[in-house]
């Protein structure tokens, strides 16, 4: 059974993307040299490298909007997580070339202004020409919530600081990654609950119709996002009571991470 296509409030997603980038910019501005030199936990990136990459997320959105629009979308938001793995190296190199050199404060100032101006100039819908596959602006902005929320969490943990996460950004990120799981493992034998934002059914097997489902997985949004992106291990999350899994089919270990 194919998952339903979820609809997002485009205006709320736009606002959430801008606000989340602002939270990161404020946090990065307060980091000292020791914090910036710490390992990020993402390959050989330092915290400074991760911070520069987040600035590139905003800058690249502006660059995409500056290009002529594509004709038709090739990729939907829920398909996007599966199309990114092969581009990780290319994205890292592009970010380094685009943003390398200037101080972080300058990078964030430039990227924030460019993104705000580009979004203001494109209030409606259009199709962006992208490496990963052409996408509507509305769908691409939903994917930006994933990038920003995931890397906000990475940055906060690596630098040892608290960074607010916008509720709408967290909701969109959670829902997209949950829907991606349902797309990856279609079915209705397991119900995955991520209150208060998402409930999806997945995995082939007996379909449940009423009462309490026999196979249930439940967790909080941030734990789900960490599981779905490989930041947290399934067994460790279950053992640490961050995930509650009941039923013989309620083991998602083989399906995680959803996005690499």
Explained architecture:
- The chain is α+β, with helices and mostly antiparallel strands.
- It folds into two domains: 10-169, Four Helix Bundle (Hemerythrin (Met), subunit A); 171-255, 2-Layer Sandwich (Nonspecific Lipid-transfer Protein, Chain A), CATH 3.30.1050.
- 51% of the residues lie in helices and 8% in strands.
- The strands form two sheets. It has a four-stranded mixed sheet with strand order 4-3-5-6. A two-stranded antiparallel ribbon has the order 1-2.
- A hairpin with a 6-residue loop joins strand 1 and strand 2.
- Helix 1 crosses helix 8 and helix 3 crosses helix 5.
- The longest helix is centred in the middle third of the chain and has 23 residues, at 137-159.
- The protein is globular.
- The mean pLDDT is 92.
How would you summarize what this structure contains?
With 260 residues, the chain is of the alpha+beta class.
Q: Proportion of β residues?
A: 5-15%
The number of helical segments is 10
H/E element order? HHHHHHEEHHEEEHHE
Number of domains: 2
Task: Describe the global form.
Answer: globular
Class by alpha and beta content: alpha+beta
Work out the radius of gyration. 19 Å
Mean pLDDT: 92
Q: CATH H level of the largest domain: which superfamily?
A: dinb family like domain
End-to-end Cα distance, whole Å, is 24 Å
């Amino acid at each position: 059974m194919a998952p339903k296509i979820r609809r997002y409030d485009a205006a709320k997603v736009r606002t959430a993307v801008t606000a989340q980038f602002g939270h990161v910019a404020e946090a990065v501005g307060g980091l000292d040299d020791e914090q910036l030199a710490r390992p990020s936990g993402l390959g050989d990136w330092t915290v400074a490298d991760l911070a520069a990459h987040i600035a590139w997320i905003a800058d690249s959105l502006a660059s995409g909007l500056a290009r002529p629009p594509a004709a038709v979308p090739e990729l939907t938001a829920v398909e996007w997580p599966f199309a990114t793995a092969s581009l990780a190296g290319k994205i890292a190199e592009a970010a380094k070339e685009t943003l390398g050199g200037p101080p972080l404060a300058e990078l964030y100032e430039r990227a924030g202004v460019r993104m705000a101006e580009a979004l203001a100039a494109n209030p409606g819908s259009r199709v962006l020409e992208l490496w990963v596959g052409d996408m509507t602006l509305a769908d691409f902005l939903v994917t930006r919530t994933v990038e920003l929320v995931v890397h906000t969490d990475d940055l906060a943990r690596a630098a040892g600081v608290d960074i607010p996460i916008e509720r709408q950004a967290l909701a969109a990120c959670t829902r997209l990654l949950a829907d991606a799981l349902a797309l990856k493992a279609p079915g209705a034998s397991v119900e995955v609950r991520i209150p208060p934002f998402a409930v999806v059914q997945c995995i082939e097997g007996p379909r449940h119709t009423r009462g309490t489902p026999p196979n249930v997985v439940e967790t909080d949004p941030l734990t789900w996002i960490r599981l779905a992106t490989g930041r947290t291990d399934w067994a460790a999350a279950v053992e640490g009571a961050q995930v509650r899994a009941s039923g013989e089919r309620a083991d998602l270990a083989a399906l995680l991470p959803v996005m690499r």
